[in-house]
Q: What sequence folds into this?
């Protein structure tokens, strides 16, 4: 289940995002949709990186009935990347959402041996999506 906080005027295929969430976890996932300015502030505050990014994931502390965590997505990045790569904003937000959930589940493409990339590839195929960032950049 997704707990959605859409701070923008953009609407996406939230039914697809809910289907993705239900495929990967029974726990609630908090999803915040925002713009480059706000995600840049969050990135600076929590990661010490002073720039906008496409997606951030913050796992929750494990306790009974806790949400899996929070995913923050920049709709500005969704739009620009979708235009750049020639796919729909719905596809791009689904790709970022999958990426974010995998991080919440403990995957880390920066240190693993390709497990996250492979799981992402499986989900991209399952949901008939275009190639995601880590699949495009890591082969």
A:
């Amino acid at each position: 289940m997704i707990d959605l906080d859409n701070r923008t005027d953009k609407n996406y295929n939230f039914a697809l995002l809910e289907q993705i969430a239900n495929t990967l976890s029974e726990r609630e996932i908090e999803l915040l949709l925002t713009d480059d300015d706000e995600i840049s502030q969050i990135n600076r505050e929590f990661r010490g990186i002073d720039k906008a990014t496409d997606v951030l994931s913050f796992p929750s502390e494990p306790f009974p009935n806790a949400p899996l965590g929070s995913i923050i997505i920049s709709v500005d990045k969704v739009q620009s990347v979708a235009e750049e790569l020639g796919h729909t904003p719905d596809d791009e937000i689904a790709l970022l959402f999958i990426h974010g959930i995998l991080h919440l589940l403990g995957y880390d493409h920066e240190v693993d041996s390709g497990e996250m990339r492979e799981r992402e590839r499986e989900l991209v195929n399952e949901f008939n999506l275009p190639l995601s960032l880590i699949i495009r950049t890591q082969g």
